[in-house]
Specification:
- This protein folds into 2 domains: 196 residues, D-Maltodextrin-Binding Protein, domain 2, CATH 3.40.190; 94 residues, D-Maltodextrin-Binding Protein, domain 2 (3-Layer(aba) Sandwich).
- It contains 15 helices and 10 strands.
- Helix 6 links the parallel strand 6 and strand 7.
- Helix 2 crosses helix 11, helix 2 crosses helix 12 and helix 12 packs across helix 13.
- The termini are far apart.
């Protein structure tokens, strides 16, 4: 009897194995996917490779699901990151510099747009920097990246902030544009596609970072170090997907699809996005091709912030604010 019981058990085990082998792949257990929550002050053209990776399934192909939240301003973005409401911040490197000096464990791990394309845009009656005397310029915060950049762009005129003109906090880019168009401010800092829209409506570009300042990093990927260490593989896949997406964007064969996809994502006039593609992709190639940040561009930020008294002077070394290990690993994917 015992022998027959053993035979029966073996037969059942064999049948079960055959049954499991015959099941569809979808019915088998799959590896758990990681979700990364990304936050940025606004949805803009300067995030083009990111949105293509979202829309074309490039993140998913790397085993990563991505959620996106609009955080409105850089200070709020840092608050979301510090409170674990988002996992990756897409902003200028500025918030990483000031956060580190305040004791936060954050770091720049990669780059999205490695050449800054901010524009100081004035109302139709403001034709030169000198015309800003006695007027207000819209920014997003009292002290930080945008106010420092605004002052640097206006400096050649000899005008001094808080003495010859006012820096007025009007909010995120869409809110700064609204304040400009309603005559609450005489000028403001805008980026694609908002600057294109402003120029089409008769506003004047008074200065821009691409031509009037040393090369500076713009959008960077910033993380809290503890979270990043616990989610290393997901971050590596995230950066690898962005590299693949940037390479796709730079392929001229994908021009029309890229324009249509971003037009739908941002819900703006197609002509504006076509102009942004020509300027950002074809003419100036501002996007990182491999999701790395520009070391010299981040160093310029460090110098600017030290001069503004936002971080110690002489400034600490670059390595205090960055971690390249995730990007290095992503290059093997």
């Amino acid at each position: 009897m015992r022998r027959w019981s053993s035979v029966f058990a073996l037969a059942v085990a064999g049948a079960l194995a055959l049954l499991l082998a015959a099941l569809p792949v979808a019915a088998m257990p799959t590896a758990q996917r990681a979700t990364i929550r990304v936050g940025s002050p606004q949805k803009v053209s300067s995030q083009w490779p990111f949105w293509m990776a979202m829309q074309r399934g490039t993140f998913a192909a790397m085993g990563v699901d991505v959620d996106f939240d609009v955080t409105r301003t850089e200070p709020l973005t840092l608050q979301y990151l510090a409170s674990n409401s988002i996992d990756v911040a897409v902003t200028t490197p500025g918030i990483a510099l000031t956060a580190v000096e305040a004791g936060a464990r954050v770091a720049v791990i990669g780059g999205l747009q490695n050449r800054m394309t901010y524009y100081l845009v004035g109302r139709p009656d403001v034709r030169t920097l000198a015309d800003l005397r006695g007027k207000s310029v819209g920014v997003d915060q009292v002290r930080g990246a945008l106010p420092a950049i605004a002052k640097a762009l206006i400096a050649p005129s000899g005008l001094v902030a808080d003495q010859d003109y006012e820096l007025r906090v009007t909010g995120a880019q869409s809110e700064r544009y609204a304040a400009l168009s309603s005559n609450q401010t005489a000028a403001t800092i805008l980026a694609p596609p908002f600057d294109s829209r402003a120029r089409a409506e008769g506003y004047n570009v008074l200065a821009d970072t691409l031509h009037d300042l040393p090369p500076m990093q713009w959008n960077a990927y910033i993380v809290e170090r503890g979270w990043a260490e616990a989610h290393r593989d997901a971050l590596v896949g995230f950066l690898a997907a962005l590299r693949v997406s940037a390479q796709w964007l730079y392929d001229p064969a994908n021009r029309e699809e890229a324009i249509q996809r971003l037009t739908n994502e941002l819900n703006v006039d197609e002509a504006i996005i076509r102009g942004d593609y020509a300027f950002l992709v074809e003419q100036n190639q501002v996007f990182s091709r491999d999701a790395s940040f520009d070391r010299d561009g981040v160093q310029q930020y460090i110098t600017l912030f030290a001069n503004e008294g936002l971080i110690p002077s002489p400034p600490p070394p670059l390595e205090r604010y960055v971690d390249t290990s995730y990007w290095e690993a992503s290059m093997q994917r």
